[in-house]
Every structure is written in structure tokens, then in C-alpha cells.
Amino acid sequence: MEVTSAGQKDKIWHILEQEPHRVFAAQGLAATLNPTAAKDPNQQQQLVNEILADLSRLVEEGKVREVAEGGFKARIFTNETRYIEHAFIGGMGNTDFRFSSPIFRLNIGVIGMYFIKSPSEENWMVLVRDTTGGTCFSLRTRLREGTYQIGNQVQEVEDKGFISIVGRYIEKKHVTITIRGDVIFVEDLKTSKGTRVDLLTEEGLTRYQEAAREFLKTVEPSNCWDPVSRGRYVLDQFLRHRQNLEVTFFGAAVDSILLQTIPVGSNPDPRAKTL
């Protein structure tokens, strides 16, 4: 039985690995693995239960993520070190993505939105970065638990907790993000270009924050927000120690430390505007 179970688990992993952006349900996998089981309800339910058990094992192994209730997909990482996980939703067979990470990014067109959870306050800081004008600036706002809409038009809705984040170059108006404690829910209703979600893994968060603390020890306080200083530090770490850090996530890790000491409503970064 163990050999058969292991063989089935390997087959499930192979199916998910072949289409890593697609979300699979146990029922769909059952029809693929054993089409004849659909003729017998009892046999089909037994197979579904076995597949759910195999999927749970794959989740424990860190290969698969349950991104929605009963929906599973292969985890995708940006590089071999597996510090940053990403997913593409909308137009790829899945519209929902559920995860937990204190630092993550939404890529919507040319806009990069960095969400940083404040460890000292019950809210999230959102930094919206736009480089299309040749210069980098950020719009800063704070979000508490609730549902938010991201788009280029302000929608008139009755729910006061449904707030729009408007961006000139955001080409969609119906991506929603829901914050419930440590769990984040992102929904993209099958837009043509989709939405990319990037999040730091637990190991990645530790790595980036350690590098951020070292950076803050070496830079003058007046330059701690300077993207050039941050970029030079990342380049130096790569040349000297072969430590490959993504500049934008490194900046978000630096921000996560700096923002711990910033009172609500203040704006210490001269390049940042408050929404």
C-alpha cells in the first residue's frame, strides 16, 4: 500500500508541476488519475480522500500550497534559493490566491505595490512604487483588516470598508485584497493580463531583514530611504559575498524596520506621498 500511495503522490506532484500556475481540486485530479472511478460513487469518494491525503503531504513537504478552499497549486520560486515565492492569478484558471507573509508584493501592470505588516500596530503599510516617469516615488497608506479594491477608477459601493486604491497606470478595476489577521486573500476576476503576487518565505524574511539591519548600521540616517544607497549595498553584497538580494524586496525589508518607529500620519521620506 505504501508503494502505491507514494506512486500516486508522485503522479499528483507531476501533474501540478507541469502546470504550476493552475489550481487543481481533488475531484479533477481523481478524474485524471482514474477516469473509471467516476462510474462508482463509492470508489470515486475513496480516491478523492486518498488524493486529499496526498495533497496534504505535499503541502507539508513545501511543494504545494492550498490557495483556496479545496484548491491546490504547485509552489513556484523565483530562484534556486527559494526565498521568494510567486503566483500568477487571473486568466490562468484560478482567480483566488490565499497566503500568509508579512511582506509581499502585487505587480499590476507597471505598478509595484508592497504590503508590509507593522509588528507594533494592527495595520499594514502599503508602498506604491511607480518608475514610469523616470523617477521613483511612492504613495503610502495604511490598511487595517478588511476588503480593498485596487484599480484605476473609484467605485461607488455601499460597503464603507471597500476602499479603492487608484493608480494612473493600473489597467484594471476589479482586483480585490482581503486582510484577515495573518491571512491574505487576493482575487482577480480573470483579467486579460492577470496579477502577479510575490511573497517572502519564512526563511526569506529572516534573510532579508538580517541584511536590512546590517545596511542600516552602515548608512547615514539621512540616506536610509535613498534607493541609490540601497542599490549600492545590494550590489556590494553580491560582489563581495555572492549574496544575491532582489533590490526591491531588500528595500521593502528596510522599510519594514524603519516603519516600526514611524507614528501614524508622519512622512519621514521626502520622496513619499501619503494617500
Present the secondary structure layout.
Layout: H1 2-18, H2 26-33, H3 41-60, E1 64-68, E2 71-74, E3 76-77, E4 84-89, E5 96-99, E6 103-108, E7 111-117, E8 124-130, E9 137-143, E10 146-151, E11 163-166, E12 175-180, E13 183-188, E14 195-200, H4 202-218, H5 227-241, H6 247-258, E15 272-274
Parallel strand pairs: 9-15, 10-11
Antiparallel strand pairs: 1-2, 3-4, 4-14, 5-13, 6-7, 6-14, 7-8, 8-9, 10-12, 12-13
Helix pairs in contact: 1-3, 2-3, 4-6
In a few lines, what is going on in this structure?
32% of the residues lie in helices and 29% in strands. The chain is α+β, with helices and mostly antiparallel strands and 275 residues long.
Model description:
This protein is an alpha+beta fold and 275 residues long. It folds into two domains: 2-74, Arc Repressor Mutant, subunit A, CATH 1.10.10; 76-140 and 185-275, no CATH class. It is 32% helix and 29% strand. The chain has an eight-stranded mixed beta sheet. Strand 1 and strand 2 form a beta hairpin. Helix 4 packs across helix 6. The termini are far apart. The model is unreliable at 264-268 (pLDDT under 50).
Number of domains: 2
The coarse overall form would be elongated
Quote the average pLDDT: 80
Number of DSSP-assigned strands: 15
**Arrangement of strands in the largest sheet:** 3-4-14-6-7-8-9-15
Percent strand equals 25-35%
The number of helical segments is: 6
Assign a percent range to the helix content.
25-40%
Q: Report on the biggest sheet.
A: 8 strands, mixed
What structural class should be given to the helix and strand makeup? alpha+beta
Please give the alpha-carbon distance between the first and last residues: 59 Å
Oligomer: single chain
Order of helices and strands: HHHEEEEEEEEEEEEEEHHHE
| Stretches with pLDDT under 50, minimum 5 residues | 264-268
**Rg for CA atoms:** 21 Å
